[in-house]
Each structure stands twice: as structure tokens, then as C-alpha cells.
Automatic annotation (TrEMBL):
Keywords associated with the record: CBS domain
PANTHER family for the chain: CBS DOMAIN-CONTAINING PROTEIN, CBS DOMAIN-CONTAINING PROTEIN CBSX3, MITOCHONDRIAL
InterPro entries in UniProt: CBS_dom, CBS_dom_sf, Diverse_CBS-Domain
Domain CBS: 7-68, 77-134
Pfam families: CBS
Name recorded for this polypeptide: CBS domain-containing protein
Protein's organism: Marinobacterium rhizophilum
Length: 150
């Protein structure tokens, strides 16, 4: 299965110049743990340039008593960004995410424009659904067999 088929297409984005409080409000409002920092091109496409997570805010800023009003998103975001291509295989994407130690990765099209985000939660949901289908298949097979051979 491809990353494009699995990823969440509703990505919450922010500009690097906005403040940290704006980012936190967006995360709370949309019930997400990150915002993707984008640069908007002349054609309207959004190019991911970084990511800011709730964990970045809590661990790196709040826990160190950093004045949030003194920083913008660009000051605190992660620049070392793993992006996945929407045509990549999910299995390969998981390996890349594990190697980089990230739980979320923006998904781009062949032009590099943002089209979604793949989170570990999305993959776990997919695997859970597949396992449930397999369990249902086994149960159904057992029911059929009991009817044939009582």
C-alpha cells in the first residue's frame, strides 16, 4: 500500500514567522500534535520546510522557561525534516521513520508540494483494521466448517 493511500490529507500548516502561541492554538483547535511549517509558492503549492510538535513546545521551550512570546515558529521548529513521497510504500516509509526516530512525516507529491502527513497512529490504525479483518475471516471460516461437519 502506498503512503498516499494511508496518509491523512488534512494537514494543519503554519508559516515560520507566526508565533509559538498561534501554533499551540492550532494544535489544540484541530486536536493534532504538530503543525507542518510551509513555504507557499507563487502557484499556491505549499512546500514543507519544517515541523513543530507539541513535544517540541513542552520539552524544549516550556520546560526550559523560554519566553514563548519572544520566539516565532521558525526559531523552534525542526529543520531536519523527513518527507515521504506519496508513491512510497508504507513499509519503506516506516523504516525511514524508524531510522530517523520520527512519529510523523509530511507527505509530498512528485513536485515536492505537501499533500498529507503520515503518522505512526495512522499506520497502527491500518494494521489494526487489517488484523481485525483477518480475525473475522478466521471466525467465518470456522463457522462454515462447523455447519459442514457438525
Amino acid at each position: 500500500m502506498s503512503v498516499g493511500e494511508t496518509c491523512n490529507r488534512e494537514v494543519i500548516v503554519i508559516d515560520h514567522a507566526q508565533n509559538i502561541s498561534d501554533a499551540a492554538r492550532l494544535m489544540r483547535e484541530h486536536h493534532v500534535g504538530n503543525v507542518v511549517v510551509v513555504r507557499t509558492e507563487g502557484d499556491g503549492s505549499r512546500i514543507p520546510v519544517g515541523i513543530l510538535t507539541d513535544r517540541d513546545i513542552v520539552i524544549e521551550l516550556l520546560a526550559r522557561d523560554v519566553d514563548l512570546d519572544a520566539l516565532c515558529v521558525g526559531d523552534a521548529m525542526s529543520y531536519d525534516l523527513l518527507t515521504l513521497n506519496e508513491n512510497d510504500d508504507v513499509d519503506e516509509a516506516i523504516k525511514q521513520m524508524r531510522a530517523q526516530g520520527v512519529r510523523r512525516a509530511p507527505v509530498v507529491n512528485v513536485q515536492g508540494a505537501l499533500v498529507g502527513i503520515l503518522a505512526v497512529d495512522d499506520v497502527i490504525g491500518l494494521l489494526s483494521e487489517q488484523l481485525s479483518d483477518l480475525v473475522a475471516l478466521l471466525k467465518r471460516e470456522q463457522q462454515i466448517e462447523r455447519k459442514r461437519h457438525p
